[in-house]
Amino acid sequence: MTSAPTMAKPARFGRRSRVRAAGSGDGQTPRRPRLYALDGMRLLAALSVLSFHWTAYVGIDGIWQGVTPREVLPAVNHLAAYGWLGVELFFVISGFVICMSCWGKSAGEFFVSRVTRLYPAYWAGIGLSTLVILGMSKYARTTAGDGLGAQTVLANLTMLQNALGFRHVDGVYWTLWAELRFYLIFAIVVAMGLTYRKVVAFCGIWTILAVLAPTSGWPLLVTLAMPDESPFFIAGVGMFLMYRFGQNMLLWGIVGFSWLLALSRIGSIQRIYVEVLHHPLSWKVMAGGMTLAFALVLAAALGLFNWMQWKWLTVAGALTYPLYLIHQEAGWATIHFWLTHGLGVRAALGVTLVMALLTAYLIHRLVERPLSKVLKRGLDRSMVSLRRESSTPQAPKH
């Protein structure tokens, strides 16, 4: 759920040049063309998750008038029941993009880039979702507004509501908590200076901790190691290393082992989604969907999508994050509104999708872009001041 910065075809290095490039990490690689394919994948992932919540998830109180989405849209539901796999694709892309975007940057620059990327659209999403939830609670039989007081909303503005013990304003925000934990542990490597060797070591250490965490009895280790999500982030990081430094057996091993771990976690993930779908899911389809998520980003890393230079994908990619933030609670309320005003199911879904895309565009243009610039200017000045104060000798105390 992050943007795709500029890079291009995977570099091809000989043995010696690869070692030199891997050890430098100085960020002197020339600016490369944008990977438009990643923008397209992000939009695909967002629409996949949207389809899951709108036409498969059995948690929409009263919207379908006492029947399940599977009864209302049986053909669509059969496929949409696996739409949550878009989250896994998001995580693989995130591992790739975060490593790419912060290569050669300092820890301060990494911090600024993440704050300016995540928070403006997120704050707008919280505001819109809160207004819609509270406004629609008068007209729809929904429990979405239960416990949604000022304290909960304020806690959500930090994006740390999960750690603070508050509910999410919108259920999809759980993925942002996973992203934040990834940024936190990756920031350690950024602070040390990104090099090929350090990032490979990071992947190996994180993999080991994620494997040991479930049986460790240490809740903090489980929280940080993220056994269910880490294989996707790690694979994305490994794919970026392939993209930047070329392929080798070690990097294929990182990606392949992460894929095996992802498949091994299907059971625990499956139980979560079966509970909200009220019907079984196929292990084979889930495994195939996870494999496809790996394969798509890997194909981009290997240059197989370099022919895809459609600039409209940049706009599509920019809409992905705000669309993801507003689609669930606000989307359900809008669908319910149109259904109660005489539109059929398919028409209500279509109109709501158009409205969601338009709203996402407005958030991007009117909130995300201008507020990100303001935040970046302010935080950049703060970082300059911080570095200046840190380098100024302190007067001796008497």
Description:
It is a single chain. The relative contact order is 0.16. This protein has 398 residues and is mainly alpha-helical. Mean pLDDT is 86; it is low at 2-30. It has one domain (15-385). It has helices spanning 15-24, 36-55, 69-72, 74-80, 85-101, 107-136, 150-157, 161-164, 174-192, 196-212, 219-225, 230-245, 249-264, 266-277, 283-301, 312-326, 329-340, 345-391. The chain contains 18 helices and no strands. The radius of gyration is 22 Å and the shape is globular.
Key words describing this protein structure:
70% helix; 398 residues; mainly alpha; disordered N terminus; 18 helices
Number of strands: 0
Unreliable spans are 2-30
How many strands, which pairing sense, and closed or not: the largest β-sheet? Answer: none
State which percent range the strand residues make up.
under 5%
Number of self-contained structural domains: 1
N→C terminal distance = 52 Å
Class from secondary-structure proportions: mainly alpha
Give the overall shape, derived from the CA principal axes: globular
Helix content: over 70%
**What's the total helix number?**
18
Helices and strands, in order, run as: HHHHHHHHHHHHHHHHHH
Brief write-up:
With 398 residues, this protein is mainly α.
What order do the helices and strands come in, and which of them pair?
Layout lengths: L14 H10 L11 H20 L13 H4 L1 H7 L4 H17 L5 H30 L13 H8 L3 H4 L9 H19 L3 H17 L6 H7 L4 H16 L3 H16 L1 H12 L5 H19 L10 H15 L2 H12 L4 H47 L7
Helix pairs in contact: 2-5, 2-16, 5-9, 5-12, 5-15, 6-9, 6-16, 6-18, 10-12, 10-13, 12-13, 12-15, 13-15, 16-18, 17-18
